[in-house]
Amino acid sequence: MEDLRLLAVEHWGFDGRIHRGELVVHQDQAEPVMEVMARLFELKFPIEKVELVDAYGAEDDRSTAANNTSAFNCREVENSPGVWSQHSFGRAIDINPVQNPYLPRSGPIDPPPGAAYTDRADARPGMIVSGSPVVAAFAAIGWEWGGNWSGSKDYQHFSENGR
């Protein structure tokens, strides 16, 4: 816990207004993540919400269904008991989960409202697509995008180690 830092970030909402939110990340990623969030702000990239997962009882499914952008959440990797997610270490961020859903090789789209956003060629506000400035901003700090995974795709997910 002592290695985590609380960041206050400004972001553009889907309503075209400036909002303030909070992210918790690992201390050695605080400055780089602030750089990325400042870049997304410059780009006026819309983000629906940036709230701590505490607002959702630390339940990832509730947070993603609410289209919440979040970082730290102490949880296991889905379908991998005993394997801690990079979110557990403050080394991953999920952005606009509805517009950028997780598409597993088998099983349902997560979150379910993300089914309306599976066609990545039909880019709409808040979506992250290959070659976008959002992907470039994270790449500039050495983070990888889950949209580049082979097999399953996690369009919302960015992490330091790519997983």
Give the key terms.
163 residues; alpha+beta; 3-stranded antiparallel β-sheet; two-stranded antiparallel ribbon; 3 helices; 25% strand; globular
- What is the share of helical residues? 10-25%
Main beta-sheet annotation: 3 strands, antiparallel
Task: Give the ordered list of helices and strands.
Answer: EEHEHEEEEEHEEE
- Cα end-to-end separation: 21 Å
Mean pLDDT: 95
Q: How many domains is the backbone divided into? A: 1
Which class do the helix and strand fractions yield? alpha+beta
* Strand neighbour order, sheet with most strands: 7-11-9
**Strand share of the residues?**
25-35%
Number of strands: 11
**Low-pLDDT residue intervals, each spanning 5 or more residues:** none
Shape: globular
* Rg on CA atoms, Å: 14 Å
Multimerization state: single chain
Short description:
With 163 residues, the protein is of the alpha+beta class. The protein is 16% helix and 25% strand.
Question: What does the model show?
Answer:
- By secondary structure, this protein is of the alpha+beta class.
- It has one domain (4-75, 88-159).
- It is 16% helix and 25% strand.
- The protein has helices spanning 30-42, 60-65, 133-139; strands spanning 4-12, 18-26, 49-50, 68-69, 76-77, 80-84, 92-94, 102-103, 144-145, 153-154, 157-159.
- The strands form five sheets. It has a three-stranded antiparallel β-sheet with strand order 7-11-9, with helices on one face. Strands 1-2 form a two-stranded antiparallel ribbon.
- The radius of gyration is 14 Å and the shape is globular.
- The model has no long low-confidence stretch (mean pLDDT 95).
